[in-house]
Design brief:
about 190 residues; alpha+beta; Aminopeptidase; eight-stranded mixed sheet
């Protein structure tokens, strides 16, 4: 059994480029239904995520258990960004469960369409990198991104991530078009 994480990310506010005051904090069990609503909205408004709306069937109880599990794992983190008490960003990170890969972890991040391009993703990524750097077990951050998501790729490259792999035509959109799936990685500096 893993020890409960005690070095949590402290909630913080920052002013986005458009002047909005955004709060970033760890997700709590009480956020479960709002996180599910946010996820449903993301799945219906972008083609840059793997899950389609018809594939998403998570229940509030399952989401609460998911949050509880993440909070108990020393090498997992869930962050939300809020504006006016509405979730406008979500980031999840978890290290690989296999021992030989447990020094690496994968992240996912989604930003509300009306809040993209104003610095929320960068602030959430900064918070993740600072936290992960302080967790000695974490040596490398990984992510996967559609090759068609130029804005996300630019953010990740600005954060120091490098493309490590490309799965050719791994994504087939409902309209029949294809995208490659890029794997990007960042070794943490200590």
């Amino acid at each position: 059994m893993e020890a409960q994480r005690t070095d949590k990310v402290k909630p913080f506010y920052f002013n986005a480029r458009d002047g909005k005051n955004i709060r970033i904090r760890e997700a709590e069990v009480t956020d479960a239904e709002n996180i599910l609503d946010f996820a449903r909205m993301i799945f219906t408004t972008t083609d840059s995520v793997l899950t389609t709306p018809g594939e998403f069937h998570l229940t509030p109880d399952a989401e609460r258990q998911f949050i509880t599990t993440y909070k108990q794992q020393a090498t997992s983190l869930l962050l939300i960004a809020e504006h006016d008490n509405q979730i406008v960003g979500f980031l999840n990170f978890s290290c690989h469960p296999k021992v030989k890969m447990s020094h690496t972890g994968e992240l996912g991040i989604s930003i509300h369409p009306n809040y993209r391009g104003i610095g929320i993703g960068r602030a959430m990524m900064d918070a993740l990198i600072i936290w992960a750097t302080d967790v000695v077990l974490i040596e490398k951050l990984l992510l996967k991104v559609f090759s068609t998501n130029a804005n996300a790729i630019a953010l990740y490259e600005d954060q120091g991530f490098a493309t490590e792999g490309r799965e050719i035509q791994a994504i087939k959109q409902p309209n029949g078009s294809y995208a490659d799936l890029l794997t990007m990685g960042l070794f943490l500096s200590r």
